[in-house]
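From the shared-data thread, chain only:
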Amino acid sequence: MDTIAMNTETIIEPVSIRATIEPITLSRLVPSKANVRRVNAGVGVSELADSIEAHGLIQNLTVRKAKKGKYEVVAGSRRLAALNLLVKEGRLAEDAEIPCNVRDDNDTELSLAENVQREAMHVVDEVLSYRQLAEDGMAPDLIASRFGQSVVTVRQRLKLANLSPKVLEELRTDEMTIEQARALALSDSHEEQERVWFESPSYNRDPRSLRSLLTREHVRSTDRLARFVGLEAYEAAGGGIIRDLFGEDSSTFLTDPALLTQLAMAGLEQASEPLKSEGWAWVESSLETSALYNSGYGRIYPLTRDLRDEEETELSALADTFDTLQEQIEGDEEGGPAIADKEAKLAEIEQRMEAIQNGARSYDPQETALAGCIVAIDHGGALQINRGYVKPEDREALAKLQRGDTDETVTDGENDGEAGTAEPEAIYSAALVEELTAIRTAALRVELANRPTIALAALLYPLVGRILHSGYTPYDAAVEVHGQRHELAPSIKEPGEARALAAWQAMKEAWGDTLPGQPADLWAWLLDQPTDKLLELLAFATAANLNGVKAKHDQSRSRLENVEQIALAIGLNMGTYWTPDAAFLSRLSKSGIAEVLIDAECAPQTRSIVKGSKAEAIATAEKQLAGKGWLPALLRTGVAAD
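Structure, as tokens:
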């Protein structure tokens, strides 16, 4: 018969305690209906069972005699449930003897007394106890198994135990919350923990601010450079990391930005090497995609030849195999290794089909000799190879090469709207107004290019208007059909960071690879396309000429009103392309930031913003605006025109 371990020391009880300690067979113990614990009665039973198995029953059950030789457990219902769980799982015999305090007092009174008199262990004492176990040589996974906790929970408690003694004393005296302590545990340096806590004003001690102060010189693992390099390569090169065990996403931070940048540049240089043998005039590496927008580059595009008979045959066979495998995967509900093999085969087929199609594209060697490549890192941390860029000083030579055709040389296109003197929005500078409307225009172009029907209407609007409605009133529309393509990058301070502009640039690149590389071949190509393809191209060309930018002294009212009409027709949602981050807020005055918070219904924060520093105002506003979906009036559909 199993016997649950109990304390063997002599127990001396005062006469006033009416109890005897007896070993009682577990099968004779039943829960008492008089037990006062109802809420959370079953919480943590599995963990308690593990602890009882490892350490024995530290606290006896309190019972009273019942009918038919049974004993009702009036204090210790969770311990009884844990013991029964051990029996159910085969870890304890059903006839094991359990040490019990046998009482004859009122059941409810006993149950209430036990639960009321119990006091939870202070969190500081708890984590220090875990640290002592670790210092005695007990590994985290062993501690977890003996106390019925997860390994993650044990590691979190050991992390808290590593806090500075001064910080732990703040936690013990309730000068600090457990969430604040978890934030400080992000750093292993006691000096840094104490500096951040004791030198921060009370209003800046929320967990998010503390984490921000500890990591402001570090790089998140989700940063595009970190994604590009990879944590393994970074650590292998000697880079340090810290992990936030208490963060919602278990954030990891890289502590050596200089090393990360060095590794990223090395990766770009390595990716550049194969390009140097393709005959380009130059190959450059850049950590920033803004190099694609700010340098006034021209472009050349590849020529596409007809596929050879053997390539057509192979491509057709690959397509049939792809479709067959896809149907098999969709029809297999069980999954398993066979599905994984088929999916891997699909990936191989896709790569081969892409290789055949890319093999039919090539650049004119004479044009290649005037152009180059830019190797960069995109927003998601992926390698971005951009071929066919022509530097400003080589664009004239390219034009001569293309038989004097200068249509490819595109000017920035100044706004031809009516000049006016109306003041811009009160809290935004003219430059910021121009930037926001340029970002919105990029988003409108992307959406309009995907909506051929609306694009056709937008194109017909100025054409028909000028034919039938021309008079003394200037007739300006959003789509500038005279062929001017208004470049948006010069209006944006950091074009490489604008999601809308990146999406529009990707669409341009896709069409550039689809269209013939030589202007002389364009007309024949157009005549050879089906109607739906021409509609797609028409939508793209229309979108490329859409101009919704509001520049300084730009009061072309009819054009800006037409922009709103198109935005409403499309149902433009700028929340997909723009968020009010610190870069935006830094462009405003403190009073402007306060106006933004009032507009976003965060008015209680405005007083502290006006009194504090600009940096504090930006940090507070960014935190308050996070997740609210707030947009400036300039970016709201149906509002910007007003």
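The chain has four domains: 19-117, 263-401, 411-578, 580-642.
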